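Lab channel / #folding
Pinned by the channel admin:
"Please post every new chain as: sequence first, then the structure tokens as a reply. Keep commentary short and put observations after the output so the thread stays searchable."

First post following the new format, from NK:
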Amino acid sequence: SQKQPFQPTKVEATQKLRLLLTHALAPRTAIMSSPRATTVSSVVFSLKPCNRHAQNLISDLANQSFVRSHDGCDMIDVDFIPDRCDGLYPAAIGKKGHIKIDRNFIAKIQVSFELHKETGEIMLVDRSPSQNCYVYYVQSDHEILDFYKFGALVLNPAAHEIVITFGGSIKYEFEVKWRMRDWIDLEAWKSLETRTGQVQTLRSLPPTKRVEEGVEGPLHELRFLLQTKIACNFCTRTTIHKCIDLRTGHCVAVKHVVDLIKGRYREEGEACKKITTDLSHPHIIEFFQVEILPDSFNLVMELQDGDLSGLVCTREFREPQQLFTDADTVGRPILLQMLKALDYLAFKDIIHRDVKPHNILYRRINGAYHY
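Reply from TO:
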């Protein structure tokens, strides 16, 4: 006779169902102790080995948990993990780093990858005592930037190519391969108070105020990486770009003014230098650097959110409420702040000559417009 299938009792079936439901509703626990297994992460960039020593570092068994294959090549992946205070993992390379270098005369932490606490920019930090890290940067326009003895330096996907070399007498060379080109989600990262990372500002590491041929100091200080074009005026031959300051991780606006008559703008650039480096007022754009070239000049200034010509198209400005009363949040702030700025310029014996909506810039501070 055929064997009858096992039929659980009602009590056994109830217990089994309860066990299944308990398992399904229970919070997931990590099988491994690695941060990759316990938190949500996304690969930001990979380190592709470019020489034999870098390849040996990847082949080391101690580093295998960070190695993944991309296009048939083993690389080290660096992830963004919002639950970590430092935000990145693995973040340190050295004798005591996440990525191990088992070698004499190597620092406990040779280099590390850190996020800027406020901007979210990824920064390479040279922690070696001799500051021997070298970075080769190729911009999208094929201009080459190279950096050494930098302390900390932004790694930004706007670059066409980035190669990192470190290690002293035995050099490890890696190329940065970007996997995530979106901004780091600062809202997802731990609160600002608990974050660890870089905190540089343009005021703590200011650029050279004046850069000019024939003047002592660096010519064409290569610390501003072009990102996007903000504005272009063919009549005045001016272009404004949004740039990232590779030294601090903050964005700036760089205005480039060109003229066909060689030497004409040297005088104008000199005038701008005298004016802009001597002004300090809350309602006047701060200029960080003036670069004077034979037929052009560059002005490096604070990056703002927009100008008044864009604001007047919004409903708040098209239909202002309680205009020029004590409760006015549109007309009075603009007039008051601009009059303060013009009064300061008059005190400095300067006439603006071109006050118009396009030249009245703003940024949002705690929900209010600051002009």
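NK: The first strand starts at residue 42 and ends at 49.
TO: also worth noting, The chain has seven helices and 22 strands.
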